Amino acid sequence: MTDLSSDLAIPEQHAHDFFLARQPILNRDQELIGYELLFRSAAVGPANVSDDVSATAAVIAHASELGLNNVIGNFLGFINVDATVLMSDFIHFLPADKVILEILETVRVTPELVKRVTELVKAGYTFALDDVIAESADIEQLLPLVKIIKIDVMELDPSKLLKLSVHFKRAQKMLLAEKVETVAQFKDCVTFGFDYFQGYYFAKPVVLQGKKLEASKIVIMHILTLLVRNVDNGEIVRYIKRDVALSLTLLRLVNTPVYGFMKYIDSLGQALIVLGRRQLKRWLQILLFANTEPARAHTLSPLLILAATRGKMLELITEKIRPGRRKMSEIAFTVGIMSLIDALFGMSMDTVVKQITVSAEIRDALLYRTGFYGEILQLVEFTERTENAGSDLSELLTNLRLSADDFFALERDAFEWGNNISSNMGHQSQDGKDQD
Questions:
Q1: Which tens digits make up the pLDDT trace of 338-350?
Q2: Would you tell me which CATH number, out of the four given (3.40.1000, 1.10.3210, 1.10.150, 1.25.10), belongs to the domain 215-435?
């Protein structure tokens, strides 16, 4: 592989001084289709204010052990590129079928750049134009070569947004609305023909307000309460039996190849024994975020993937800095999962916490981001943001006595785990759909 530090004239930095931020990208049905990937500096000082995009090539080169599949699973990775990255040989390191290359609005369009993009399109790469807020001569030069137009909806009123969308739709381009933060913005973009959406609108309680809590989720919450109370398996089994779908899901879970049992587990009591309470509690927490609507049972919820990844990352961080404290790591996993429960239930976190019995340390973490669990939750939330949080991240890492190297490795493992969880649940749901 080319020595990119010299090729790009980027000052050599330790690759693990960076962390990876990823933000989900959804389709019109609010199903996950990919992530925007951004490499952010955890350093404090001049390095932290350098151009993150210019450093992208060097970071990926030095940190290739992260593994793109571990980060995005079976989805697409949207990666920002500037002229320096585009003109380098390094670009071919990225698999053409797994990435969308986003040309930043700051890139100056030259005949050389147009020629280079043309070559890359012929090589199978797909391009998007990033942060578009108006028509321009530069955009028109690149328009025949790009597939996706990313429009910053925060910068445009509805009339201008409509005008832009009509223009690019006539050019037969896919439209991606970025920085979607409200229901009104999402509805406008759907009406105007946008194909993809990026932002935290899907994870905000306001989006789901008025949604009734499904019976199966109520059962799950009651079973979780029983597990916290440490009641015997018989009582838990009796409650699981109240929900046929949940019973079947549990039996299907313990009989999947991932568990490797030599014989078929055919009773709920046996399933609880072989699965174990700790694993049962984890799966129930994750199931809270799964799609249960029959028409969408085969789809993957982006909220599920986000919650699962948060939970696992908090657990891994706790195991690293509080070794041997199994109960603490279990609490950390619960905090991660529950940190999105307000979005799931469509109500404020304060209301949710009042309805569910939790300890004071979990409540403080969820409501105020304070205490040990609140600190590590803040740390993980930084990996979901597209804006740079370098100084805050560095301060949290120092307070928690967690090195950038360790954080990088834990982040990689959590992403891989979250992708595996969502993939396994997606296959199970699809299997169930096919059997019907």
A1: 888 777 666 778 8
A2: 1.10.3210
